């Protein structure tokens, strides 16, 4: 363990504890040690991890640690789960989302390592290099036994055209292979641009000489390559899996390798790891590596540094760059979103203090230029956080805001409209409870000029910060004066005041910015005054 300086936040220095439970490159650990207490404990059993995790603010893993629901539930202080690598299938992200814990990975740090490993495996498979090496080391000289095949002019089928799939396509074209691909999330045009003929998986398996899979392991991709598809493949097909065990059905692959339908397989990953019990290990036409796809010095440094930096960002109250359970802010929106997210959170917080009863529905209307904005869901999350966090016992944050809302049966509707009530952009939030309805609207004039522009239909120009009293009263002389006198007697300074009305002499609204908290008896006194229908104190 290392004693260190702590992370400085809002005038406080907080000492965070980080558990590294899989081997992580020293460059990443060193970044964490500058400000945190770091324990590297790569030998914990699941039971020991469940016991240990309660002391830590973050856990950093590779694929070796199973971060299960039990681990996450036991991690009372957990604020961040980092995966130094791409696949997060060893982390129960749903459980983390429920608890509001961001899970982040390092998606591109090991792309080239995994790509090069796949290419190495394909070449080794084509030329029997591991088998020939083992044979010669036994002092055998069997040249005809290890006759290979060329890659030149063969068809390579790539299942999953993401980061790794695309890099493989590029390299395989340099070896003059013809590339066909399957990926339901890639267009034909995009595939064509990278030299790949896109087709359905059922067609791909029929035409390919080599098949390599590069998808995540999901319910849809589990056993995507199964006995039925293997039966339709070319005789003597060769298969490579450097993505995740389970994308290819291992039993079906074993049967195909034994029958000779499949000439050979190169496997870096397995349905169960380590695969000591797998019959595949006994087959001569199977070459294997122990999940080494990401194991290069360069990749390990990249991924360790990436998750360490994201961990510190989260400790400092900033978002993790590659959070997998929080929507990603597109790079071109990183400047634009924060003022709207700020406004949304404040609007949520305000309306939450203006309503009574059980919240049943939340309607958010994005108007003006926001009607064309693809990233309104970020603002919605901020609104939900602002509204629900002060009300609920469990913490609500950007990660679990949607989950918590849904779990409580609160209906959320997002609509867009070109109508803008004269503003460039306008957010209108309406909350319906079992007792009442309230509406608040706000706008961003610029990042330094953010305003609530109406409450309950009354126009105003309110800075959404600090402490406020919001009252509804009769628009008659003396009513406002009565409220100010009460505050003066209680020695509460009024820093600003706004009044809004629809018609003279009818109900009006007053917003008083005050410099201190207003005690409940003082609020009761204001409410009791003739002409004041309601008055609420809110902190933003
Ligand atoms: N062996 C290793 O050490 C190693 C190293 C790095 C990555 N990986 C694994 O490699 C895989 C690919 O990584 P990546 O960085 O390229 O991921 P990626 O997210 O960039 O790409 C995955 C691609 O799979 C596609 N896909 C999703 N569902 C699909 C489906 N049902 N059918 C077909 N395609 C589908 C996606 O559209 C995407 O294009 C992951 O499983 C990752 O965990 C393994
Ligand atoms: O998904 C990944 O990034 C790879 O499977 C690498 O796993 P590792 O970090 O355990 O090597």
From TrEMBL:
Gene Ontology MF term list: NAD binding; phosphoglycerate dehydrogenase activity
The protein, known as: D-3-phosphoglycerate dehydrogenase
Database matches in SUPFAM superfamilies: ACT-like, Formate/glycerate dehydrogenase catalytic domain-like, NAD(P)-binding Rossmann-fold domains, Serine metabolism enzymes domain
Keywords on record: Amino-acid biosynthesis, NAD, Oxidoreductase, Serine biosynthesis
Reactions that this protein is recorded to catalyse: (2R)-3-phosphoglycerate + NAD(+) = 3-phosphooxypyruvate + NADH + H(+)
UniProt-listed InterPro entries: ACT-like_dom_sf (IPR045865), ACT_dom (IPR002912), ASB_dom_sf (IPR029009), D-2-hydroxyacid_DH (IPR050857), D-isomer_2_OHA_DH_cat_dom (IPR006139), D-isomer_DH_CS (IPR029753), D-isomer_DH_CS1 (IPR029752), D-isomer_DH_NAD-bd (IPR006140)
A matching Pfam family: 2-Hacid_dh_C
Known EC number: 1.1.1.95
């Amino acid at each position: 363990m290392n004693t260190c300086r702590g992370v400085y936040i809002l005038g406080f220095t907080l000492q965070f504890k980080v558990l590294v439970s899989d081997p992580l490159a020293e460059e990443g650990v060193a970044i964490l040690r500058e400000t945190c207490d770091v324990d590297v404990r790569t030998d914990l059993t699941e039971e020991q991890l469940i016991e240990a995790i309660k002391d830590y603010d973050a856990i950093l893993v590779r694929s070796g640690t199973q971060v299960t629901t039990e681990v996450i539930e036991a991690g009372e202080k957990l604020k961040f789960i980092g995966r130094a690598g791409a696949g997060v299938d060893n982390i129960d992200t749903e459980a983390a989302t429920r608890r509001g814990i961001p899970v982040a990975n390092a998606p591109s740090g090991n792309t080239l390592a995994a790509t090069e490993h796949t290419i190495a495996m394909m070449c080794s498979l084509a030329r029997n290099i591991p088998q020939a090496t083992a044979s010669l080391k036994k002092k055998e000289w069997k040249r005809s036994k290890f006759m290979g095949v060329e890659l030149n002019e063969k068809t390579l089928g790539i299942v999953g055209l993401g980061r790794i799939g695309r890099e493989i396509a590029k390299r395989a074209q340099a070896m003059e292979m013809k590339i066909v691909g399957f990926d339901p999330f890639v267009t034909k045009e995009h595939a064509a641009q990278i030299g790949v003929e896109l087709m359905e998986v059922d067609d791909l398996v029929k035409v390919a000489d080599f098949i390599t899979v590069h998808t995540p392991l999901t319910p849809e991709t589990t056993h995507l390559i199964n006995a039925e598809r293997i039966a339709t493949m070319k005789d003597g097909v060769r298969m490579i899996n450097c993505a995740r065990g389970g994308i290819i059905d291992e039993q079906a692959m074993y049967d195909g390798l034994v029958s000779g339908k499949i000439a050979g397989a190169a496997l870096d990953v397995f349905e169960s790891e380590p695969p000591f019990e797998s019959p595949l290990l006994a087959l001569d036409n199977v070459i294997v590596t122990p999940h080494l796809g990401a194991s290069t010095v360069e990749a390990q440094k990249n991924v360790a540094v990436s998750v360490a930096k994201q961990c510190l960002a989260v400790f400092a109250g900033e978002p993790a760059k590659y959070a997998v359970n929080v929507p990603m802010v597109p790079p071109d929106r990183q400047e634009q979103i924060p003022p709207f997210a700020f406004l949304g959170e404040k609007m949520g917080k305000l309306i939450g203090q203006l309503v009574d009863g059980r919240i049943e529905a939340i309607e958010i209307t994005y108007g003006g230029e926001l009607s064309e904005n693809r990233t309104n869901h970020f603002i919605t999350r901020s609104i939900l956080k602002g509204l629900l966090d002060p009300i609920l016992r469990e913490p609500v944050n950007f990660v679990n805001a949607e989950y918590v809302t849904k779990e409580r049966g609160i209906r959320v509707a997002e609509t867009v409209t070109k109508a803008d009530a004269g503003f460039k952009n306008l957010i209108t939030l309406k909350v319906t409870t079992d007792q009442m309805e309230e509406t608040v609207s706000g706008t961003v004039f610029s990042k330094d000029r953010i305003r609530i522009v109406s409450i309950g239909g009354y126009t105003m120009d309110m800075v959404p910060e600090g402490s406020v009293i919001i009252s509804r009263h009769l628009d008659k002389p003396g009513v406002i004066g009565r409220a100010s006198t009460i505050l003066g007697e209680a020695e509460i300074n009024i820093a600003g005041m706004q009044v809004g009305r629809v018609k003279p002499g009818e109900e009006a609204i007053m917003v008083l910015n005050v410099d201190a908290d207003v005690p409940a008896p003082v609020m009761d006194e204001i409410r009791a005054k003739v002409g004041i229908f309601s008055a609420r104190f809110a902190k933003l």
